[in-house]
Amino acid sequence: MNAILAAGDFDLSEEAPAKINLALHVTGRRADGYHQLDMLVSFTRHGDRLAFRAANHDEFSLSGRFGPLLSVEAGDNLVLKARDLLRQAAHAAGFDAAGVHIHLEKNLPIASGIGGGSADAAATLRGLMRLWQLDLPEEAVKAIALKLGADVPMCLASRPLVARGIGEAIELLPAFPSFPVVLGNPLIGVSTPEVFRQLSRKDNPPLLFPSQMPQGQGEWIDTIKALRNDLEPPARSICAEIAVLSGLIESQAPILTRMSGSGATCFGIFADTEQAKTAAASLHRQRPDWYFQVTETIAGEA
What CATH number was assigned to the domain covering residues 3-172? Predict the structure, then answer.
């Protein structure tokens, strides 16, 4: 744990798990320009971490490997936007929402397709709900999350799920298993709008499951293999490093390799944790300048 967070100076903390798109199907486009998506989403034990404490006035601080790369300007930072929107809702509902010092330990690469900013915003909502002892309706909190971004309602749940629409229609998967995974990123940002612009077809087949929902790791792996990420081909055309990264992970003999979200993060699912650790160590040796992380996905809560 970061020394700043370990010092006990904060009242409470919240994890902000990385979001992995195990599959992402682009099925259409709405009149307002938003793309219709079908997504199979899981979250990992690795991610950012936020800490909160009551303060006389609002403060925000950063640490972690990628903290120096993150803007602290309110207009750009989803953590501060989440704080301000939740405070507005709290005041409107008659709650106090006093000053707060928020500390973000930024462990996930920026603009990497694994929901870092959205996960941070969701963790901010969860943390401040606890710190401020807010009793807001669940739907009101979800509405704030959606206002912050299409991925934030998913990150608010941080459990295996299927998301449809622009990400707001969520179905939790309580029986979804955990998988050992290795995350990799070439530390090159990829523009999500540009990836969508390069998408050759925007009315792809939807995400469909077998008539009976998969059970256990083996059936879920077979199901995931039959799905796809429609954003991977255009992302590869924009960022050649994605193909190199995917090939490196594939060389470690994972069960499955795929890109997450709009990239550039790719992941490999491995048979067990030891294989994942061995793969991550090998990848670190081959590309010490890139980001590799061994972790596991969070299982459903059956």
Answer: 3.30.230.10
Distance CA 273, CA 170 (A): 29
Are the beta carbons of 91 and 50 closer than 8 angstroms? no
Q: Which of 11, 19, 106, 225 is catalytic?
A: 19
268 is in an annotated binding site: no
Q: What is the topology classification, in CATH, of domain 180-296?
A: Alpha-Beta Plaits (3.30.70)
Which residues, other chains included, contact 285 with Cβ-Cβ below 8 Å and sequence gap of 6+?
none
pLDDT tens digits for 35-82? Answer: 999 999 999 999 999 999 999 999 999 999 999 887 665 457 999 999
Handedness of CA 194, 197, 199, 205 (dihedral sign): positive
Please state whether the predicted TM-score (pTM) of the whole model is above 0.90: yes
CA 194 – CA 263 distance, rounded (Å): 11
269 annotated as belonging to a binding site for a ligand: no
β 256-259/100-105 pair status: unpaired
Catalytic residue among 38, 48, 120, 151: 151
Active site residue 151: yes
| 147 a catalytic residue | no
Residue 75, annotated ligand binder? no
The response to whether 23 counts as a known ligand-binding position is no
Would you kindly state where each structural domain of the chain is located, as residue ranges? 3-172, 180-296
**One-character DSSP codes across 85-129:** HHHHHHHHTT-----EEEEEE--SPTTSSS-HHHHHHHHHHHHHH
Phi first, then psi, for residue 114 (nearest 5°) are -125, 25
